[in-house]
Amino acid sequence: MLDPQLKRIARTLGPSDFPRKLALELCADCNLACSMCHHPEMRRPKGVMPFPLWKKLADEVARVDPDTEIWFSFCGEPLMEPDLLVAYLRYGASVGLRSLNVNSNGQLLVPEVAGPLLESGVGTVVIGIDGFSAPVYASVRVNGDRDTVYRNVEHLLEQRRELATGPEIQVQFIEMDENEHEMGAFARYWLERGATVKVRNKLSWGGRLDTPAHQEKEERIPCPWALTMMHVFWDGRVPRCSGDVEGEDFQANAWHSNLTDIWAHLAPYRQLHLDRRFDELPDRCQQCRDWMSGAAERVREGQLDRLERRLRKRSLPMVYAPGTTALAKPFNPLPFPEGASSPPAL
Fold it and tell me: What distances in angstroms separate CA 339 from CA 149, 195, 291, one per listed residue?
């Protein structure tokens, strides 16, 4: 049976003259080799997006639809170029872009970077962490250090509390077999410190990686990624969709064409989705399962019951404190990491 969330998402999809979201690859290099990411296998050249290209893109978005969500994230870590990232954000804010967002692994989010980032005009900062204990973190965020990212994010949250205005800080938890038993402890820890917890399904990166998401072929819906989002590589190339991480199936270049024109050129591809003519889609679409991923769950203070419902839906074992019905920490045989010698209080 089709997931009710996917039904709701499908009802929001339709033709559009401009992408709702634009993901920009500020930097194609990354300091980690995460288990759930395609980046360790990426073959295409790596580099840094030149500022004139960003200016061209930002000016067009400001002119056409300044509410378009701008995300500095794709196949790379934007904080490998911290000064450039802050300059890009400030320019975007100066031309009237109203949704500037950053997705980072947090390893390089040191205090000297956190301050300028918070005051750059960014609206949302998402830090992908995905683990509560050090062993689990290390198993998914390969080459990263759990204590470093926890220290960086805690300092970021402290700085944010001192500001009158500033971005929402989200800590991301991608559900995987390796970490799902830590979701409750992870959420409580970060909610107590003022972060929003973002939980989402693992992506297949266009069918390249395995994912637990499963829907029957006959239940397929139009792909939300293809219908709403455009990606631009650091060198200006525009792939057909987010699953085309190597730029193999379709290429235009934002140096030479407007985003509006590129989006219009891809309209027949999007229409195949809307018409549910899925058998006529490119070969990559036949293997891709990312249309099943659904929307992320954002959990804020007082909303732990939303995680409980999510865990029940996935049929995970639930452990309750005696005499209560509150979400309690699922069984975790691993010791608490350094700096967290006991479970956070319920």
Answer: 13, 18, 39
0.70 surpassed by pTM? yes
Asked if 78 and 32 touch (Cβ cutoff 8 Å), the reply is no
Residue-wise pLDDT tens digits, 98-127? 999 999 999 999 999 999 999 999 999 999
Structure tokens at 231: 């990606």
Of 297, 278, 291, 299, residue with least CA distance to 6: 291
In this structure, how many other beta carbons lie within 10 angstroms of the beta carbon of residue 202? 22
Q: Are 43 and 246 in contact (CB under 8 A)?
A: yes
User: Left if phi > 0, otherwise alpha if psi is -120 to 50, otherwise beta: which for 241?
Assistant: beta
How many other CB atoms are there within 10 angstroms of residue 296's CB atom?
15
* Secondary structure (DSSP) of 220-274: ----HHHHHEEEE-TTSEE-SSTT-TT--S--EETTTS-HHHHHHHTHHHHHHHH
| Residues 35/139, Cβ–Cβ less than 8 Å | yes
| 210 located within any domain | yes
Question: Is 322 domain-assigned?
Answer: no
Q: How far apart are CA 275 and CA 290, in angstroms?
A: 18
156-205 confidence digits (pLDDT tens): 999 999 998 999 999 999 988 888 889 999 999 999 999 999 998 765 54
3-state secondary structure of 152: helix
Residue 155 in domain: yes
Place of tokens 């219908």: 227
- The CA distance from 60 to 65, in Å, is 8
Domain range for 206 is 4-313
Mean pLDDT of 57-62: 98
Q: Which amino acid is residue 101, in one-letter code? A: N
CATH number for the domain harbouring residue 144: 3.20.20.70
Domain-located, residue 31: yes
Q: How far is CA 182 from CA 75, 191, 328, 330, in A?
A: 26, 14, 11, 7
Q: How many domains does the chain have?
A: 1
Residues linked to residue 198 through DSSP beta bridges, in sequence order: 172, 298
Measured CA to CA, the distance from residue 335 to residue 120 in angstroms comes to 38
- Report the sign of the C-alpha dihedral through residues 221, 224, 226, 228, in that order: positive
